[in-house]
Amino acid sequence: MFSQHAKAYRGLLRELKKASLPPHKINPTLSSNFRQLAEQARRSDVILEDLRNAITFMAAQREHKVLLDRYNPLVDLTADERIHATARRVGLDMPIVHEPGSTS
């Protein structure tokens, strides 16, 4: 029974390492809170199932971000950058806007 709890805790730490910024730097508060949950899971199968659900959720969130970045590369651009990128995608180019005070 202990091995299931240890496996769940190690899985949580693995997902926290993958999700952390900077990489592989886990927030100590999160780590200690999850450790307390893992210790409580020894007494309750419901908490163990919640830990497993948390692992699944964190892995799915990470995968969702990867897919979102892959298939929607404009997601992190500003509105103007998104408009320019969309115009270039269909073979157009945005006109250069004259700004007063510039010497062009």
Describe the protein in words.
- This protein has a domain at 2-64.
- Helix content is 67%, strand content 0%.
- It contains four helices and no strands.
- The protein has helices at 2-19, 28-41, 45-71, 79-89.
- Helix 1 (2-19) packs parallel to helix 3 (45-71) and helix 2 packs across helix 3 (45-71).
- The chain is elongated, with a radius of gyration of 23 Å.
- The model has no long low-confidence stretch (mean pLDDT 84).
Short description:
With 104 residues, the chain is mainly α. It has a domain of 63 residues. Helix 1 runs antiparallel to helix 2, helix 1 packs parallel to helix 3 and helix 2 packs across helix 3.
Radius of gyration: 23 Å
Low-confidence stretches: none
State the helix count: 4
Order of helices and strands: HHHH
List strands and helices in order, with pairings.
Elements (H helix, E strand, L loop, with lengths): L1 H18 L8 H14 L3 H27 L7 H11 L15
Helix pairs in contact: 1-2, 1-3, 2-3
Structural features:
single chain; 104 residues; mainly alpha; 4 helices; 0% strand; Fmc1
